[in-house]
Every structure is written in structure tokens, then in C-alpha cells.
# Entry
Amino acid sequence: MAQLSAHRGHADELRGLLIHLILPPLGVATLFIGWYAVASAGVISHQFLPTPLVVLDKIIDLTRVPYSGALLQTHLFSSLEKFGVGYLLAACLGVPLGLLLGRFQVLEWALSPLLEAARFIPPIAWVPFSILWIGTGFLSPVLVIFSGVFFTCVVNSYIGAKLADKALLEAAQTLGVGRWLGLTEVLLPAALAHIVAGLRIGAGFGWQSLIGAELIVGSTGLGYMIVQGESNLNAPVVIAGMVTIGVVGALIDYVMRRIEYRIYRKWRR
# Structure
């Protein structure tokens, strides 16, 4: 019986491995085959829907020949730079604020109404305000990214602090641990699962917010490149930019998932 159970366990693991190895590439291949079929059939003009091969050729070309004043990798680096600054600022301010709101009720009563109202403002709505306030330079998209990440970090950290075992905090206070030390040594590890989840969700919101901001304001970046391609009726450039945005966004999420997995393993120990 034990051998039969072990055999079934190995079979299930093998089946799961095959599913993870085969189905994702199969899904991507199906998408590109369908795209190629529609584009080749002429249902939509090639001017507006080029084939995947044309887009791939355009991506390679964009890495060699500047478009809108820069190569594709330069536009990508510019977007990643803005994203990194906005994301780090939002995480460094949002996580501590969320923990403080969950730990100190007076602070929660004072700031919750303001934060509840502000978090429902879409990040893209901050674009006109950022232009009026700080112009159209580097910091304007950074502010939009910040708004897309900040409130997610605050809310998830706050929920994690609220759901933390109060007995742990009481035990720490009984042992003479002060409030601020208890915040970092007890509350932070207890809320870590929610914090990491907020950071991962915030990364997705931040990347989307960046591209939305670059579509409206900016002189470099993937969003700016797409706008210039649209202005010139250059569909391959537009789709090449969209594909790059999607691939990089998926890579960012994959990295965040790996970090989340490692932190969970360490935290559970």
C-alpha cells in the first residue's frame, strides 16, 4: 500500500511538471499562431496589424536603429529607472506607515479618512497634477508610479499589522521590549506575508502606472515610443513597444514571486 501511494505521488509530480512545462509554451504558441493567421488572412490591413515576424524584425531593428531619439534598450532603461525610483520611494514610505497605522489607533483615526479617499484616485489622474506641480521632467512619471504603489503598500501592511497575533506584542512588552523595537522585531515579521504580497501587487500597479504616465508626458521611455509610433501610423513600433512592456512586466512579476517565495520559506522557519 505504501509503495502504491509513493508511486501515485511520483506520478502526480511528473504530471504536474509536464503541465507546467508544456501548457505555458502551448498557450503562447496558440496566441501567436492565431495572430499570424488573422494578420496573414488580411482580415485587418497589414498597416494596422502586422504579422508576428514583422514585429519581431522591428524589435531587432529598434535595438540597432534609434527611434524617437533612442534605441529600444535606452527607452527600456529610462522606463525602468523611473519605475525603480518611484517603487522604492513608495515601498520605503508605505510599509512603515501601514505598520504604524495598524499599531497606533490614534494615528489610524487621524489618517485613515484621508488615505481611504486618496487611494481611490487612479494613478493616471495624478498626471495633470504632477505636470502642474513639478513639470514634465523625470519626477513627473515618478510621482505617478509612487501613487500606484504607495497605497497598496500601506493597505497591505496595515492589514498585516491588524491581523498580527496580539499575544506576541503583549509578550514582548512583558519582557520589556519597547514600542518601537516591538514594531521592528515583532510586528514586522508577523505582518511580513501581507507586506510582501503588497509589494508584489504594487510592482504590477507601478509598472502599469509608469506606462500610462509616459503615454501622456515624457521624452523617453517605452510609453513615449509607443505614442510616437502611433503618431506616425507605425503599427510595428506600437506593437513592439507593447510586447516589450508585457514581457518586462512578466519578468518583474516573476522576480517578485521568487522573492516572495524565498521570504515565505524563511519566515515559516
